[in-house]
Specification:
Blueprint lengths: L2 H12 L3 E5 L5 H7 L8 E6 L3 H6 L5 H7 L4 H14 L4 E7 L13 E7 L5 E7 L4 H31 L4
Parallel strand pairs: 1-2, 1-3
Antiparallel strand pairs: 3-4, 4-5
Length: about 170
């Protein structure tokens, strides 16, 4: 089973939801999730914040951080994930930010990507990627990576819950 159906299934089973904040992927994460039949039970929606000021004004990313480091930054990715979670009222938020190419941005070379997850109980995770390939390949791999990151967090959360329910055995 590919990652998107697995994510939608896990979320639906738990009665949880996800929202996506996308920059370089431009809606591809939302498209991948909504390709799954019945995705509406778990997918709240997405914000494609391609412009830096939208990251600040819509998602609540710290303007000082954006001014100091630019949009291609791990903390920006984390704040985007937390922001979309809050703005769209989802249990989980995921985010992509980076440089698909062909040129550099904010002093970062093409292929520099950060993906993030923010979830209930303070779950926060960011992955730093250094990708090679065409613009399309970098965007596609960014989608795969953010969905894998979320899937891993959902599985970890389930394991922790099972351990707690079984008395730590």
């Amino acid at each position: 089973m590919s990652t998107a159906p697995r994510i939608i299934g896990m979320l639906a089973e738990r009665g949880q939801t996800v929202a996506a904040a996308e920059s370089l992927t431009g809606g591809l994460v939302a498209a991948e999730l909504t390709e799954v039949p019945g995705a509406s039970v778990a997918f709240r929606g997405s914000v494609t914040a391609y412009a830096t000021e939208l990251k600040r004004d819509v998602l609540g990313v710290d303007g000082t951080l954006l001014a100091a480091r630019g949009a291609v930054d791990p903390e920006v990715a984390q704040q985007m994930a937390a922001g979309v979670r809050r703005v769209l009222g989802a249990g989980w938020g995921i985010a992509t930010t980076g440089v698909a190419g062909p040129g550099a941005q904010d002093g970062q070379p093409a292929g520099t990507v950060f993906v993030a997850v923010a979830g209930p109980d303070g779950v926060r995770k960011v992955a730093s990627l250094r990708l090679n390939g065409s613009r399309a390949e970098i965007r596609k791999e960014s989608v795969r990576s953010v969905l894998e990151l979320l899937s891993g967090e959902l599985q970890d959360t389930a394991r922790r819950r099972d351990t707690e329910q079984n008395g730590g055995n």
